[in-house]
Amino acid sequence: MRKILVLTIAFFAISVTVNAQEWNTNFKEAQAQASNEHKNILLVFSGSDWCAPCIKLEKSIFQSEAFKTFAADNYILVRADFPKRKKNKLSQAQQEQNNQLAATYNSNGYFPLVVLLDEKGTVVGKTGYKNTTPKAYIELLQSFEKN
């Protein structure tokens, strides 16, 4: 019985690790990783605690198994969050970095804004929330890479 319990726990831990999604918050580290792995960067501007379309995008697309699997193989994920509630306040350094990213890639202040960048930081394409399937959203992101 004990062996079964240990194996069950080990299997669960492995499956959670495999399906875990890595969202970076440090853009410079993400750029270095993208360069090393020759992957594009998916930069997402989000208002995680106030922006309804941001929350829908997170739940319907980014948390889907299809997106997690695709993103793990193809992108370095970066989230630039702009929460409004005091309890979700970012550190000053994180807020400054996000502000700089917004000045560079989201000067119009759109939320959510999904920016696909090549490994050097050049914009490949931009989109926002779409009421669509994860498969269709992935196809949209892939279409940017073909231009």
UniProtKB/TrEMBL annotation:
SUPFAM superfamilies: Thioredoxin-like (SSF52833). InterPro entries: AGR/TXD, Thioredoxin-like_sf, Thioredoxin_domain. Keywords: Signal. Residues 1-20 form the signal peptide. PROSITE patterns: THIOREDOXIN_2. Gene3D superfamilies: Glutaredoxin (3.40.30.10). Coiled coil: none annotated. Residues 7-146 form the Thioredoxin domain. This is Thioredoxin-like protein. The lineage of its organism: Bacteria, Pseudomonadati, Bacteroidota, Flavobacteriia, Flavobacteriales.
